[in-house]
Design goal:
Subcellular location (chains A, B): Cell membrane
Number of helices of chain A: 16
Organism (chains A, B): Phycicoccus flavus
Protein name (chains A, B): TrkH family potassium uptake protein
Largest sheet of chain A: 2 strands, antiparallel
Distance between the termini of chain A: 33 Å
Number of strands of chain A: 2
Bound molecules: potassium ion
Radius of gyration of chain A: 22 Å
Number of domains of chain A: 1
Keywords (chains A, B): Cell membrane, Ion transport, Membrane, Transmembrane, Transmembrane helix, Transport
Order of helices and strands of chain A: HHHHHHHHHHHHHEEHHH
Strand content of chain A: under 5%
Strand order of the largest sheet of chain A: 1-2
Oligomer: homodimer
Largest interface: A-B, 89 and 89 residues
InterPro entries (chains A, B): Cat_transpt (IPR003445)
Helix content of chain A: 55-70%
Chain lengths: ~450, ~450
């Protein structure tokens, strides 16, 4: 019991960093909701309804991309600009706050930070904050500009007027790099299904944005893979692995589906297979209608969405490091190693327990909300699971259920987007900071497993 | 690399106990297939087809209960007797071999066995084997006799002729205690949907059979809960928890479903809710048609099936201890404890890694086979997932897909029943026995999670 009280005290003392993140995102959503309620943001005479504004603001700040209305037609140009600003604020916030939280945690645990060589202090100093903010800002500006230029070029060639081409290019570039998936086309990118000049830059922006700031920084600073940190190696391995396996799986699953790419040539099949292996992690653009995909694609996409992208990135999901660590646990078990190792580094049981906790609680959240949504609506389980995973992992892909979910269902999705976006980040930092030592050791128990 | 070779050597040396189990079950299935191929086992002139005999023998020996034909009409009385014998051999083998494996593992790891006070040896002695076989035999005879007497009594009251009543009573009692779920009625137990005198004894037999021999032995020998082992405490806690939560969930989910219990009184709703919370873990009898249940029930039942029953029991699934341990990991994480503890016992990271490995590989097997079966057949994902989980966890519940799966699909189910039945038991013992030490320690890596 004394133990419990000590835990309680520590909780109050250390909850801060995670609370900061939750408060920041809650405030951004509140401001976004108020802005989107202004009549000037609407194409029609009246302003948006409260639920529509709240849902859209949450979806934009959490860079999800699920929508209850047609973004192109429902919102005015001002509305589009507000949504773009919310996406940028959300994505920037995720990269910086995610990086700072990770930094804070590693400092508290007495590890040397890899971000700079400053002396170890108990908290994250102003120097760190400046480094991170500057770095994220620079990466964001560079990537978004390049991609916007490429997209604008394509749209000019297509014959769009220059102003419109630039606006569309910037919007989709920002939406892609921040893994937001909002599009100014009612059909997302289905009209560009065979257009590599559009799809490839967007996919690249999504992948880079989804690696996470710590990884991007290392890739920029250190050219020799040997000097990469374990985190970077794990993230890159899993990212490349999921891209290759995902592309093969999706391409094969849709190869002869006439409703998606079955009637098209093999280069387009491969292009779209690649594109739809990237988008579930967790950008949310689509160049085919997910209401038309095969059951295998639906299931595979759900798994890709759940895993998501890199830590301290604009991508959602439970993060690639979480799952590749669980994979290394299995490898260690099967090889009979007493310690879990990855790339010649020892992984502490503490870290494995964190990964396990995040994965299991994530699974519980998705399964639980799927049951709740199945109860609240009349939709079939696979589609509901798809939508719930898309919201939780802040992907934004949809088989078309979200607009027809009803008020209760949409509110569930709002909550799911918020906890799915902030849950894994804040949970892990809260867990890592709360660890304390027991003053006595208990005898070992050995239950039978399996 | 020297490391790998050492692991390889150890593998060859210690693979034995797990291999014994797999060989024993493989042989029993082979003998069962040959017996069921005999024309005397069929009601028709010709003998059964090879696939039907193989599927039925596997289903009986693995105490699954999935069927490709109507057990009542397709097989003769001799066939029924063969099936009953296969069930008894399978269930008896699971309890004894499961217990001996656990004993062998705990001996190898230098822990004091709880089964008797014999001196510690490097292997399981003849005395242990005798104790276990005798104990399982005694428990089996006692429970099966009591339940058979209760069922026979009910059937006599119903007006069945004495010989028939006795046969039906014995068959369903054996099928229930061994968690086999085979029934001599084409509709399983739907005709007894409101009959507590039939359903409750069967549920009790299923629960007792699903606790596992180590737990039953302790319950018989030690009346004071304080002296129970951690394994018994964990098994009982999770069993009671799943029964209570499962009953509530299933009852509420089916409360107003006119196709199951919606039109019946509340006592029957509660009785059937309880019965169908017990049957997924992993008996496989049904008193309503699973093709008619709500989506919530379908999803909840899949989870109950996947978890299954107790270790070294007649129940399948990944076992209750596996999952309750993962739950305690989350508790430890959230409380910030450096060690995972349960009921004042320390759980070693090694044990947690085993539980995690079993759970993840089980999940992979079910999801992978669901994808394969979705590809091979035209059925919808939820139903295919239900059938695959039912086969893997050797439950035997069905929404009616199995007979219509086609040859390839049914062969997948045969494999799934076999690896689902033996996988968790043998995997854990193999993992536990192969653990060896590294001669040098690596620097710690600290990837970001979540
Ligand atoms: K997204
Ligand atoms: K069964």
């Amino acid at each position: 019991m004394g133990e419990g009280r000590r835990g309680g005290l520590r909780k109050r003392r250390f909850r801060h960093p995670a609370q900061v993140v939750a408060t920041a995102f809650g405030s951004a959503i509140a401001v976004g909701t108020v802005l989107l309620l202004l009549p000037v943001c609407r194409t029609a005479e009246n302003g948006a309804s409260l639920l529509t504004a709240l849902f859209t603001a949450t979806s934009a700040v959490c860079v999800t991309g699920l929508t209850v209305v047609d973004t192109e037609r429902y919102w005015s140009s001002t509305g589009h600009a507000v949504i773009l600003a919310l996406i940028q604020v959300g994505g920037f916030g995720l990269m910086t706050l995610g990086s700072l939280l990770a930094l804070f945690v590693s400092r508290r645990l007495g590890l040397r930070t890899r971000l700079n060589a400053a002396a170890e202090t108990k908290s994250v100093g102003l120097g760190d904050v400046r480094t991170v903010v500057r770095g994220v800002f620079a990466i964001t500006v560079v990537v978004e500009s390049v991609i916007a230029a490429l997209l604008t070029g394509r749209l000019l060639v297509e014959g769009q007027p220059p102003g419109r081409a630039l606006w569309l290019g910037v919007f989709h570039s920002v939406s892609a790099f921040n893994n937001a998936g909002f599009s100014l086309h009612g059909d997302s990118l289905v009209r560009y299904q065979s257009d590599g000049w559009i799809l490839v830059p967007i996919a690249v922006a999504v992948i880079v944005g989804g690696l996470g700031f710590p990884v991007i920084l290392e890739l920029v600073k250190r050219t020799s893979p040997r000097r990469w940190s374990l985190h970077t190696k794990l993230t890159l391995t899993m990212t490349v692995g999921l891209l290759v396996v995902g592309t093969l799986f999706v391409t094969v699953s849709e190869w002869s589906n006439p409703d998606t790419v079955g009637t098209l040539g093999w280069p387009v099949k491969l292009l779209d297979g690649f594109f739809h292996a990237v988008m579930p992690r967790t950008a949310g653009f689509n160049a085919w209608d997910y209401a038309d995909v095969t059951q295998e694609t639906l299931l595979g996409t759900i798994i890709l969405m759940f895993v998501g992208g890199g830590s301290a990135s604009t991508a959602g999901g439970l993060k690639v490091t979480t799952f590749i660590l669980l994979f290394f646990v299995i490898v260690a078990e099967v090889r009979g190693e007493p310690q879990v190792t990855a790339f010649d580094r020892r992984i502490e049981p503490r870290v494995i327990r964190q990964a396990l906790t995040v994965a299991l609680l994530g699974m519980a959240a998705v399964v639980g909300s799927t049951m709740l949504l199945t109860e609240l609506t009349d939709f079939a389980i696979p589609q509901v699971l798809f939508e719930a995973t898309s919201a939780f992992a802040t992907v934004g892909l949809s088989t078309g259920l979200t607009p027809n979910m009803g008020v209760a269902g949409q509110l569930v999705l709002v909550v799911l987007m918020f906890i799915g976006r902030l849950g894994p980040i804040t949970l892990v930092s809260a867990l890592a900071l709360r660890q304390h030592t027991r003053r006595y050791s208990l005898p070992e128990g050995a239950p039978i497993i399996g």
